[in-house]
Amino acid sequence: MPSMANITVKKNDGTTDVIYVGVQPSAGDKSPAVWQNQSVGSAVAHRPEFRTVAQDNGTNTARRVNMSYMYPSLVTGSDGRISVADKVTFNGSFSLPKGMPLVDTNEAAVQLANLMTSALVKEMLKSGYSAS
Questions:
Q1: Could you tell me which CATH class the domain 7-125 is placed in?
Q2: pLDDT score, position 120
C-alpha cells in the first residue's frame, strides 16, 4: 500500500509548483488520508484540500477508493476579515460555480487534474488503498 507523502502539482500557469502537504495519513480502511495546500489562506477552512478513503466493497470482491477535493474562493470583507465566498468541490463529480472568478475555477480545475495524475494518487488507485 502507498505511503503518505506530500503531493506536488503544477498551478494553472503550468510552471509554478504547489505542494499539497500530507496532514493526516489513513489509519486503515474507512479512515481518510488528507492533504492541504498550506500556501493559501491563514485558516484551515481557507486551504484547498484533497482526501481519499479506501475500503472493501460490500461483498469483499473489490477495493473502493473515494476521493474528494475542495478549492475555496476567498474574499476580504470591508472589515478586513477573510472568508470563503464559494468553493469548487469534487466527489465523483466536479462542481464549477458560475459566479466564481475564472482565475479561481481555472486554478481549481488544473490543480485537481494534476492531483489526479500524481504518482501517489495513481498508486492508491492501482492498489485500492489510501496512503498511510
A1: alpha beta
A2: 95
Q: List pLDDT tens digits, range 102-111.
A: 899 889 889 9
26-54 tens-digit pLDDT: 999 999 999 999 998 889 999 999 999 99
From residue 68, alpha-carbon distances to 60, 78, 80, 88 in Å are 23, 32, 30, 11
Domains of the chain, by residue range, sit at 7-125
Q: Are 111 and 48 in contact (CB under 8 A)?
A: yes
Nearest partner of 37 among 116, 108, 121, judged by Cα: 108
Q: Which three cell numbers stand for residue 33?
A: 488520508
Question: Strand, coil or helix: what is 107?
Answer: helix
Cite the beta strand spans of the chain per DSSP E.
Answer: 7-10, 17-24, 33-37, 49-56, 63-76, 82-90, 94-95
Decide if pLDDT at 86 tops 80.
yes
Q: How far apart are the first and last CA of the chain?
A: 8
- Give the strand order in the sheet containing 94-95: 7-10, 17-24, 33-37, 49-56, 63-76, 82-90, 94-95
